[in-house]
Specification:
There is one protein chain. The chain is of the alpha/beta class. Helix content is 33%, strand content 25%. The strands form six sheets. The protein has a nine-stranded mixed β-sheet, sandwiched between helices. Strands 1, 2, 19, 20, 22, 23 and 24 form a seven-stranded antiparallel β-sheet that branches. It has a five-stranded parallel β-sheet with strand order 6-5-7-8-9, with helices on both faces. A hairpin with a 6-residue loop joins β16 and β17. α7 packs across α8. The N terminus is likely disordered.
C-alpha cells in the first residue's frame, strides 16, 4: 500500500504552504528534578498550588514549600527502602496526590497512577501486574485495603492520605511524611541528592482496558521531559490554571501538571467535576486543560443561558459585529462578551483540549468571544502528545502540527486518502510492561502504530479521521469513519450522544449507516419539540446534506438511556 512519510525537523515542515514555524523559547531540562530545581531557583516564593482543605479554606503552597514537601516524603520512602521501587497512587485530585507524583518522578522509583474509577478487582490486577510495592490511597479506599492486601501480596506498605495512626504496614501519610521531615532536617540528603537515568522506566500507565485487560504503558523520564519542552515550544501557557482532569490521565499529569510547573504557573486543584464552574469563579484561571466533552458543555451552557435571558439574538449580532471590527484591527471581544468571560472567572484566555475530536465550529465560536481553543492529538503510548495547534496558527478542524521531535508516516492509505498514523521520536513509549507480544504488534523499528487514521492538509497540519477499529467498509467498497458523521450530528442542540454504525444485510455486508442517538429531554422541552423522531430525522438529513451520498444516514434509532462509557468518559462502541 501507499506509504507516506512526513519528517518535521528544525522547525521546517517539508511540505505545504507554511515553511517556517515560529516556536516559543523554552528552557531545556534533562530531568524532573532539574525542572523543579529551576522553578524554585527562578520562582521559589511564587504560589505553585492552590487547593481547598477539608473545611473549604483555600491553601497556598509556594514552589519552595512544594519542593521541601517532596524532599520530606522522598526521604521517608528512602528510609523504608522504597525510593527505587514501583509506587502506586490512587484517589481524587489532591495536593497529596501530586506530591506523591513529583516525589516519585524525582526518585529512582516508578510512579504507577491508578484510575480512581476502577473496581477493586481491577485495582488489584494493576497492582499485581505493575509489581507495585507501595500504595498511596485516598480515604474512599480504606474499606478495600484488607482485600487488596490479601490479593496483592507484593504491596509491602499501604499509606493512607486520611489515615490518622500508623499500624504495622498501614501507614498514616501525615505521620510518615513527618518522620521523613525529621530525617531530612537532621541531615539525611540521600533522596535529595539521588541521581536518575532519564532513559529508564519512570511512569507506568495502564490503559482503560475496554478491549480486555489493561496494558501497562512504559514511559521514560526522557519521554516526559520531551513532552514538556516540545509542547511548550508549540503552545504556551500563562500564570494560573484550573487543574480539572483526573491526575491518573497522562494528559493532565504530563501535559497539564509538568508543563505548568516548568512554566512556573500556579496550579489550582479542582476538588470535584461538579464544582468546575464554581471554581472558575473562585480561582480565576488564565488557562484550563479539558476534554472536548467539557468544551461542548461550556458551549451549550453559554447558548442556553443566552436563550433563557432572551439574549441569544443579541449574542449572534454581537458576534458578527465583533468579527467585522477585528478585520479592521479593532478587538472589543472582552467588552462585548464580558458576561461570558465573567462566568469563566474573568481571566480565561485559553482552553486546551485533547483526548478526542472537537467540532471546528466550537473553535470558531470561542475565538469569536475572545478565548483561544487549542486542539491537540495524542495517545498514552506517546506520552501523550503528538501534535498541537499553534497559538498564531490555530485551526480546530485539525489537531495541529507534529512536535519538533516527532516523525509521522501514514500507512495503509485508503482511496479517500486516509492512512494509519504512525509516530516515531522522543515521545514514543518504551513498550508495554511485561508484554513483548503486544509491544511487537504496535512498535516496529521505533514506529508506533496508533490505530488512528488521518491525513495531512496542505499546511502540514494533522487531521484525524477516526479510529481504525471503528472503520466501516460499505458493500460498495467505500470507507466511512463514524466519528466524522457523529461530529455533524452533534451540531443538533438536543442531541446529547450519538454513535454511527454500519447496518448489515442478510449476507453480512454493511450496506448503509445507522445513527443511534440519546437525546437531551430538557432541550427537547425547551425547543418545544413534539415529535422527536421525525424532527431528529429531518435535522440529521439537514446536517449531513453536504456529505457524499454514501455517508448519509439511512436509519435512526433513539435510545432511552445513555451509552455505557469507559472510566475516561468515552463511549464504549
Amino acid at each position: 500500500m501507499k506509504n507516506i512519510k512526513l519528517c518535521y525537523m528544525k522547525g521546517i515542515v517539508n511540505m505545504g504552504k507554511i515553511k517556517e514555524l515560529k516556536y516559543y523559547d523554552v528552557q531545556k531540562v534533562g530531568t524532573i528534578k532539574e525542572l523543579l530545581e529551576i522553578a524554585v531557583e527562578q520562582a521559589g516564593d511564587k504560589i505553585a498550588f492552590k487547593y481547598k482543605d477539608e473545611k473549604g479554606k483555600v491553601i497556598d503552597v509556594t514552589y519552595k514549600e512544594f519542593q521541601k514537601d517532596t524532599f520530606e516524603l522522598g526521604t521517608a520512602l528512602n528510609s523504608i527502602n522504597m525510593a527505587d521501587k514501583h509506587i502506586a497512587v490512587i484517589g481524587e485530585n489532591s495536593y497529596k496526590w501530586v506530591t506523591v507524583y513529583l516525589t516519585v518522578l524525582k526518585s529512582k522509583g516508578v510512579i504507577v497512577p491508578i484510575d480512581k474509577e476502577l473496581p477493586v478487582c481491577d485495582i488489584i490486577n494493576v497492582l499485581n501486574d505493575s509489581d507495585s510495592e507501595v500504595l498511596f490511597y485516598a480515604k474512599k479506599y480504606e474499606k478495600n485495603i484488607d482485600e487488596i492486601a490479601e490479593k496483592a501480596p507484593n504491596v509491602k506498605y499501604f499509606i493512607g492520605f486520611s489515615t490518622e495512626k500508623t499500624e504495622g504496614n498501614r501507614l498514616s501519610y501525615n505521620e510518615f511524611k513527618a518522620e521523613g521531615k525529621k530525617l531530612y532536617e537532621g541531615g539525611d540528603k540521600t533522596y535529595a541528592e539521588m541521581i536518575t537515568d532519564h532513559n529508564n522506566l519512570k511512569m507506568l500507565v495502564y490503559t482503560s482496558g475496554t478491549t480486555g485487560m489493561a496494558k501497562g504503558v512504559m514511559l521514560s523520564e526522557h519521554n516526559l521531559i520531551s513532552i514538556v519542552y516540545y509542547g511548550l515550544r508549540v503552545s504556551t501557557v500563562y500564570d494560573r490554571c484550573l487543574s480539572v482532569l483526573p491526575y491518573h490521565h497522562t494528559y493532565e499529569a504530563v501535559a497539564g501538571i509538568l508543563v505548568s510547573l516548568h512554566h512556573h504557573s500556579t496550579i489550582c486543584i479542582n476538588d470535584s467535576l461538579k464544582a468546575v464552574l464554581k471554581n472558575l469563579q473562585l480561582y480565576k484561571p488564565d488557562y484550563i486543560y479539558v476534554v472536548p466533552a467539557f468544551v461542548e458543555l461550556f458551549y451549550k451552557k453559554i447558548w442556553s443561558n443566552a436563550k433563557e435571558s432572551h439574549k441569544d439574538k443579541i449574542l449572534k449580532v454581537m458576534m458578527i459585529v465583533s468579527n467585522g471590527l477585528r478585520k479592521i484591527g479593532i478587538d472589543l471581544r472582552k467588552k462585548f462578551f464580558k458576561s461570558i468571560h465573567d462566568a469563566f472567572g474573568g481571566n480565561l484566555r485559553k482552553i486546551v483540549t485533547g483526548g478526542a475530536a472537537v467540532r471546528p465550529e466550537l473553535g470558531k465560536f470561542f475565538d469569536t468571544i475572545g478565548i483561544d481553543l487549542i486542539n491537540g492529538y495524542g495517545i498514552t503510548e506517546c506520552s501523550p502528545l503528538v501534535s498541537a495547534n499553534m497559538d498564531y496558527c490555530n485551526d480546530c478542524s485539525t489537531v495541529g502540527f507534529p512536535l519538533e521531535c516527532v516523525e509521522i508516516k501514514l500507512e495503509d492509505v485508503t482511496p479517500e486518502g486516509d492512512g494509519e498514523i504512525c509516530v516515531k521520536g522522543d515521545i514514543v513509549m518504551l513498550g508495554y510492561y511485561k508484554n513483548p507480544e503486544k509491544t511487537a504488534e504496535v512498535l516496529q523499528d521505533g514506529w508506533f502504530r496508533t490505530g488512528d487514521y488521518g491525513r495531512i492538509n496542505d499546511k502540514g497540519q494533522l487531521m484525524i479521521t477516526g479510529r481504525k477499529k471503528n472503520l466501516i467498509v460499505l458493500d460498495n467498497g467505500k470507507n466511512v469513519f463514524p466519528e466524522e458523521i457523529e461530529n455533524y450530528i452533534m451540531r443538533i442542540p438536543y442531541v446529547q450522544e450519538v454513535v454511527v454504525s454500519g447496518v448489515k444485510d442478510e449476507c453480512g455486508s454493511e450496506v448503509r449507516l445507522c445513527a443511534e442517538v440519546f437525546l437531551n429531554e430538557d432541550k427537547l422541552k425547551e425547543l418545544d419539540i413534539k415529535d422527536a423522531e421525525q424532527t431528529l430525522k429531518k435535522d440529521i438529513a439537514k446536517e449531513c446534506s453536504i456529505l457524499p451520498m454514501y455517508k448519509r444516514i439511512g436509519k435512526v434509532v433513539i435510545r432511552d438511556k445513555e451509552f455505557a462509557k469507559t472510566t475516561t468518559n468515552k463511549i464504549k462502541r
